[in-house]
């Protein structure tokens, strides 16, 4: 009888979990630089940093992902040893509501905070859609005045210009949920039994950029069939009701005053609608007084924002430059940030309304836009590499590295196999090093070192045919050992200049 063959242990597959990705040095560095610029603006506006846990209790998170049809799904959750349920945060706002409710007696009112970090959503991944991504939020909790909302719009404008988006390359669009609620009232959709229809109307308006007015009109009525043949049920509005909603969608005028005047006409007879218009007028006046014209902050009725917990002003920052989509069609880059007023979120914990407003910036999306416009480098310069010619003189080479670091120059000692100089220089190229430092026994006896400008050398190498030409080329030079720091600094400056 044949012996059973022992199965070899299965090696784990070296693959990312579905919907997650790795970030390497240059991308992490670029993101960090961008986030420092953004948080400097937040700090300038008086916001303080807050770092809360990535994990919250399911009870504290409450209704998950209120912008989807299945609100109690979409998070990564598990049961703890005490049988309580916990989950990874899906945004930065739900944790803020818990923090404020828990510590409100020790916090100033209003409380102004910013937060940066990853969030997680247990959703189906797709092209450009990941289950972990970064957010950078700023919120003001505890003030009902829409001056706080105006400040968010102005700050968004400042942030985009600070990271390198030129004026004219973006627009911050502002609307108000109260105005839309007033339009719903006028259209006969204000009752509690009309909640489903209102949700469909909201989602239809939110798709205006993608579907156009005809597509939105179809979704307001019986529904719409897309190019693949799939049919989406509509809100079932009559022609007159649909025209009222479409009038709201197309209410944008040449300036903020004309737009708010048109909105006043549309919500005539609705108290909540008129309250929303007055808030928009206040925001428009406030940003204009600070020098933010309609080329930067614009009242735009087409902005609705998907999240259901918004109770007043909503805003969205959109980049206006054109890109090609996956099918080669010209598209605008679109939204990179959004937010609004949410006066009911803290109420879940303490039973009383706490007014709040905030903005969330999509970090990875904004970074992609900056890279696409060459506004931020993702091929960051690596460290100066000090090579090892003589294994017995490692301490001498470490001394060189120490001098460079003390002078503020990023540097490292080659720690691989020192036998092959070609391998050491290849490593320096892979590290995107600006300079390689070389010192053999001959140079050491003369009190000299060789400096190799790696970028310049790569450009010249293709045209060098003889040893004499190689010695004469300016990419490599011998300098006094005592001039190490000064000569390396000069070589880096030539490269950057």
TrEMBL record:
The lineage of its organism: Bacteria, Pseudomonadati, Pseudomonadota, Alphaproteobacteria, Rhodobacterales. Keywords: Aminoacyl-tRNA synthetase, ATP-binding, Cytoplasm, Ligase, Nucleotide-binding, Protein biosynthesis. It is found in: Cytoplasm. It comes from Pontivivens insulae. This is Histidine--tRNA ligase. InterPro entries: aa-tRNA-synth_II, aa-tRNA-synth_II/BPL/LPL, Anticodon-bd, Anticodon-bd_dom_sf, His-tRNA-ligase, HisRS-like_core, HisRS/HisZ, HisRS_anticodon. Signal peptide: none annotated. Its main location: cytoplasm. GO terms for cellular component: cytoplasm. The gene is hisS. Belongs to the class-II aminoacyl-tRNA synthetase family. Residues 18-383 form the Aminoacyl-transfer RNA synthetases class-II family profile domain. GO terms for molecular function: ATP binding; histidine-tRNA ligase activity. Its EC number is 6.1.1.21. The keyword Magnesium does not apply. Homodimer.
């Amino acid at each position: 009888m044949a012996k059973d063959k022992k199965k070899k242990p299965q090696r784990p597959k070296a693959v990312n979990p579905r919907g997650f990705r790795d970030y390497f040095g240059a991308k992490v560095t670029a993101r960090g630089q961008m986030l420092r610029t953004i948080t400097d603006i937040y700090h300038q506006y008086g916001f303080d940093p807050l770092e809360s846990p990535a994990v919250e209790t399911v009870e504290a998170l409450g209704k998950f992902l209120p912008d989807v049809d299945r609100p109690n799904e979409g998070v990564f959750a598990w049961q703890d040893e005490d049988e309580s349920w916990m989950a990874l945060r899906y945004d930065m706002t739900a944790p803020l509501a818990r923090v404020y409710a828990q510590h409100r007696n020790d916090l100033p009112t209003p409380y102004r905070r910013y937060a940066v970090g990853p969030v997680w959503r247990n959703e189906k991944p797709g092209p450009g859609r990941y289950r972990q991504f970064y957010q950078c939020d700023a919120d003001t909790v505890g003030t009902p005045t829409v001056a706080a909302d105006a400040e968010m719009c102005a700050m968004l404008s400042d942030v985009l210009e600070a990271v390198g988006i030129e004026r004219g390359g973006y627009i911050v669009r502002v609307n108000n949920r109260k105005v839309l609620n007033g339009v719903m009232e006028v259209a006969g959709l204000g009752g509690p039994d009309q909640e489903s229809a209102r949700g469909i109307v909201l989602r239809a308006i939110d798709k205006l950029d993608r579907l156009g007015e005809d597509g939105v009109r179809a979704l307001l009525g019986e529904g719409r069939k897309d190019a693949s043949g799939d049919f989406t049920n509509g809100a079932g509005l009559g022609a007159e009701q649909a025209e009222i909603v479409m009038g709201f969608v197309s209410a944008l005028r040449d300036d903020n005053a004309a737009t708010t005047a048109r909105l006043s006409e549309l919500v005539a007879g609705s108290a909540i609608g008129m309250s929303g218009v007055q808030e928009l007028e206040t925001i428009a006046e406030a940003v204009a007084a600070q020098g933010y014209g309609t080329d930067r902050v614009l009242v735009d009725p087409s902005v609705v924002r998907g999240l259901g917990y918004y109770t007043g002003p909503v805003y969205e920052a959109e980049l206006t430059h054109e890109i090609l989509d996956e099918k080669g069609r010209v598209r605008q880059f679109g939204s990179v940030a959004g937010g609004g007023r949410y006066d009911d979120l803290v109420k879940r914990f303490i039973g009383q309304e706490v007014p709040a407003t905030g903005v969330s910036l999509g970090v990875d999306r904004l970074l992609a836009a900056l890279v696409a416009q060459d506004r931020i480098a993702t091929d960051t310069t690596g460290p100066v590499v000090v090579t090892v010619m003589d294994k017995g003189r490692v301490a001498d080479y470490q001394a060189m590295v120490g001098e460079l670091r003390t002078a503020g120059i990023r540097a490292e000692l080659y720690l691989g196999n020192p036998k092959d100089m070609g391998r050491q220089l290849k490593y320096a190229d892979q590290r995107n090093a600006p300079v390689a430092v070389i010192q053999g026994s001959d140079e050491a006896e003369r009190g000299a070192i060789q400096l190799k400008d790696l970028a310049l050398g790569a450009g010249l190498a293709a045209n060098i045919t003889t040893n004499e030409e190689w010695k004469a080329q300016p990419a490599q030079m011998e300098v006094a050992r005592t001039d190490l720091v000064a000569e390396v600094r000069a070589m880096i400056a030539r490269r950057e200049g």
